[in-house]
Amino acid sequence: MKYLLKDFEYYLKNERGLSINTIKSYTIDLKQYALFLDKYHDISKPKFIEKKHIGGYLKSLKKKIATKSMARKLTAIKVFHHFLLVEKEVETDVSKSFSAPKIEKNLPQVLSIDEVVSILERVDKTKPLGLRNSALLELIYGSGLRVSELLDIQMEDIHLNQGYVIVKGKGEKERMVPISDMSSIALRNYIIKSRELLLKGNQLNYLFINNEGHQLSRQGFFKILKKLASDAGVKTDCSPHTLRHSFATHLLENGMDLRTLQSLLGHEDITTTQIYTHISQKRIKEIYKSAHPRAKEE
Length: 298
Known about the structure:
It is a single chain. By secondary structure, this protein is mainly alpha-helical. The protein is 57% helix and 4% strand. The chain contains 14 helices and three strands.
């Protein structure tokens, strides 16, 4: 099935518009699936795959991997079998009757507004790296960007006078996201006073540069944020995505409607955005319990 997997990769990228990371995950999952079929059932052609073979493969994984990983592997198999049907490699989609296992949804960690401010205040804006860090944090929290979107921004994507940035989200889909006034100030300071110094003569179009004059990596940003959060005394486990979650939650708490938030976050499905309503409700309960004199027993 090797040639089919190559065609499937092309299909995912050019027809489904999936991200590179998703395509890589699906490809790895399907290679494992193909190895299982070949090893245990001597199946090398998709027309010989039956429901019992898929069921056997999923059963073999059950005690080895987490439910979330199982759900992703089944999704990869279902997308692959749909592709086989479209390409007329098979007459029926034998994966259709399989349902994804129920995944326990853990609410993401969220910082309070005070915690975000305390992290921002730890940045030393007298140094080039500090000016960059200030721009990074103001933009990711002020616009709710994914870390990949933030670090892939090119110089021409930033429109400070008009107050927006163009970002590429999942599946290479572009969207226009507003920039806050605080982000604009931090970005101007960084671009004017710091970026050229960090480039060290390199010609690079990425907005955010590391200390060696190259594009700042995810790991680099993660370390910066961890250090600042620790210095600020923030106890909540903090990652770049925590700032995105905090952005969404704080906007909902201040009255933004779900549809507008969905658009800002670049979610295709509003059910993904709805998780933030659960976070808001949980936080409201926590605040109520800590503030109301008769909310809990003494």
